[in-house]
Amino acid sequence: LKLGVLASGRGSNLQAIIDAIERNELDASIEVVISNRAGAKALERAKNHNIPAIYVDPKEYTGKEEYDLALVKVLKRYEVELVVLAGFMRLLTPRFIEHFPNRIVNIHPSLLPAFPGLEAQKQAWEYGVRYSGCTVHFVDENMDTGPIIDQEVVPVYQDDTAETLAERILEREHRLYPRVLQWIAEGRVKVRGRKVYISGLSN
Ligand code: GRF
């Protein structure tokens, strides 16, 4: 499965995906990593593994759609089959999404539909939930609302801060994302409306 990863920052999820591929746990290849931020550590991580790393500067485009179409162009040039959002801090326009129907996935650091949007771990900690986690979902036109593929749950402890909770969730993200991508690579994931069916799962 040919992946194209979009990332804006640290890129620890990108790294987890790279590592899973190198350990032969994920039958996929990362064809290109694209960022909207020149200094994104994700770009550096890609280069370290000889993966094409491309910065697309939003300031060079007149609007969101023009920008998104520039991203589409790069992804098509690299023949990307699945677009993987890994800390990509922009909402994609419908013009982008129509080029990859049910072929865009995202990871979010909460148990959706709770706490969509920015700083989800802090939102969860401030709310006082006893459990939180992370979610991998298909991407639709709205923020963090697409069909859910899989989730992992983590407890929130009494002495947690938003930061310690975020760390605990991040560890799980790094397991969850490669696992879901492998299911997709195996052709086991089907979407019907809001429901996602994964063949061969016991639950
Ligand atoms: C992760 O917490 C992910 O869930 C969210 O953005 C963060 C990206 O972290 N969408 P990283 O860049 O993968 O380290």
TrEMBL record:
GO terms for biological process: 'de novo' IMP biosynthetic process. It catalyses: N(1)-(5-phospho-beta-D-ribosyl)glycinamide + (6R)-10-formyltetrahydrofolate = N(2)-formyl-N(1)-(5-phospho-beta-D-ribosyl)glycinamide + (6S)-5,6,7,8-tetrahydrofolate + H(+). It comes from Calderihabitans maritimus. Catalyzes the transfer of a formyl group from 10-formyltetrahydrofolate to 5-phospho-ribosyl-glycinamide (GAR), producing 5-phospho-ribosyl-N-formylglycinamide (FGAR) and tetrahydrofolate. (6R)-10-formyltetrahydrofolate binds at residues 64, 89-92, 106. Pathway: Purine metabolism; IMP biosynthesis via de novo pathway; N(2)-formyl-N(1)-(5-phospho-D-ribosyl)glycinamide from N(1)-(5-phospho-D-ribosyl)glycinamide (10-formyl THF route): step 1/1. The keyword Nucleotide-binding does not apply. It holds the Pfam family Formyl_trans_N. Keywords: Purine biosynthesis, Transferase. Residues 2-181 form the Formyl transferase N-terminal domain. The active site is at 108 (proton donor). GO terms for molecular function: phosphoribosylglycinamide formyltransferase activity. N(1)-(5-phospho-beta-D-ribosyl)glycinamide binds at residues 11-13. GO terms for cellular component: cytoplasm. It is an enzyme of class 2 (transferase). This is Phosphoribosylglycinamide formyltransferase.
